[in-house]
Structure prediction request, 565 residues.
Amino acid sequence: MSSVLTIAGYGLREALRRKVFAVVLLLTVGFLVLFWLANHFLFQNIANISPPVGSGIDARAFAGATIFGLSMFGTLFLGVVLAIFLTLGVVRGDAERGLLQPLIVRPVGRVTLLVARWLGAVAVCAPYVGAVYVATMLITGLTGHWWPDHVVVPGVELAAAVAVVAALSLLGSVFLTSTANGIAVFMIFGAGLVAGLLGTVGHELSSHQLERAAKIAAWLLPFEALYQDGLRQLTSDTTGLTGFLLELGPFGGAYTGGNSVRLWAAAYLLLVIAVAAFGFTRRDL
Amino acid sequence: MAAALAVRGLAKRYGSVEALAGVDLEVREGELVGLLGPNGAGKSTLVKIACGLVRASRGSAEICGLAAGSREARRSVGYLAELFRFPGWYSADEVLQLHQQLTASTGGANERHELLRLVGLADARGRRVEEMSKGMQQRLGVAQALIGSPPLLLLDEPTSALDPVGRRTVRELLEELRSRGISVLLNSHLLSEIELVCDRVAILLRGRLVAEGSPAELARSRGVEIETDDGTRLFEGASREETPRLVGELVAAGRKVYGVRVLTSTLEETYLEAVGGETS
Ligand SMILES: Nc1ncnc2c1ncn2[C@@H]1O[C@H](COP(=O)(O)OP(=O)(O)OP(=O)(O)O)[C@@H](O)[C@H]1O
Ligand SMILES: [Mg+2]
Prediction:
């Protein structure tokens, strides 16, 4: 247990030193300012906004849910950037620089090291995502007087999505150099977004095949499914057409959700960490 | 009592490269063994298998009777890699503290001070690694390997970046460790260093052990050369003790003797002979 804390602390000190936190803080402040501006102008012109005909929801809820849905994408993106920076070089990157060998010959297991680095990353990313989520909710709530139907669950799901990406990045670090891994994980993240887009396109074109493809992709990349489920939670108690729900996300809508997705995401997380641990224990350093 | 390190039939392939091709080697308790060999001979590979960084393809390696690489075995090993780096933002003292935590060493500040003093870094305790010269980092690496007083030290070229005084410091340190009963496997290209401190020397060539013995055994006499009016004659394998008899025989046979030279081979000559002048 104490070695888990030691290794996790070691990882965080590295991030602090590499100015990861400074960069992320700067990005976050920029994002929140822009988001506040967007809210300000959006709710100023609330009279001009017309929800989809026949949906039976008022303009304020429509505007609030849409812009807050947008912010959730931003929050997820920032959390993913942070998670990737914290984990992209944990195994191969550090081994190539000669940093890993002195640690790994100590009586700390390789699996412990991997899990500790994941916990260290999550210990930073989850509170960060939570803080940005709350900040954006307050911005929308205070400027637009609209609050999501579920306040806690979408935030937790975003944090969980980032934890899944951190695990994928750790898995990649076992096999890829830092740069290659960073690119790979960002591409996987992008693929998740494309899955959401596919769903929207499929919905617009009434193509069930495309919608099914989007669903499969979301299950393969459950961070996307968690994000979509979070979007659903925003307006799940608001009466209105499902069509409205489906178009919430900037990169596609919320087609996938429910408890099965959450369970699957948890299992997926364990699976990714297990595969990473297996690969790491067999690796020559 | 199991040997500190026992390697049997050890082989390792990296893809098509055969780094080790069946090596048997033992480091007994309190023994200082030097491992020599040209670049790429497999010295680092052997050490990496012993400390669990690399998995053997065949054969076995045991540390104090425990399978190399297991957590229990790693408890008994101090390792200095040939290429390593400590995080630049740690101070010397913090590096040692980190490794104390990882080995659950209870030595505290006393152990850290003592180790830094031993490697000649007492004045650089608070200096950050990124502000240290390469040799200072290597000294810190040696101190790091000694954390928790492991019974076996695996040192992969610990003096490659050190100045002559630093080399001497490490040499004295090794002698001190031996007097405490600690076993050491030392990889080095510095034959003179090996000759001075090691109890036993092993020479690796292309993944095979080609010579093994004490420095004195390996640096044996090669023969006697005698210059006569009939030309220079070499008596291969003859020792210094045989010189008077050889000269007497030549004189008795009517030769005029102008000079006599006893050829002793240094460890370097033995090494060059063993590896056939190979550099890689
Ligand atoms: N990770 C690796 N992947 C592939 N081949 C490797 C790897 N590590 C070592 N080798 C090969 O294994 C052989 C032995 O390498 P090793 O590092 O053990 O040599 P060495 O005796 O320590 O040499 P040096 O004196 O240069 O340090 C070399 O041919 C090397 O190219
Ligand atoms: Mg080597």
About this structure: Residues B 43-44, 82, 156 surround magnesium ion (ligand 2) (CB under 6 Å). Chain B touches chain A at residues 14, 48, 51-55, 71-72, 74-75, 77, 79, 81, 83-89, 98-99, 101-104, 141, 144 (CB under 8 Å).
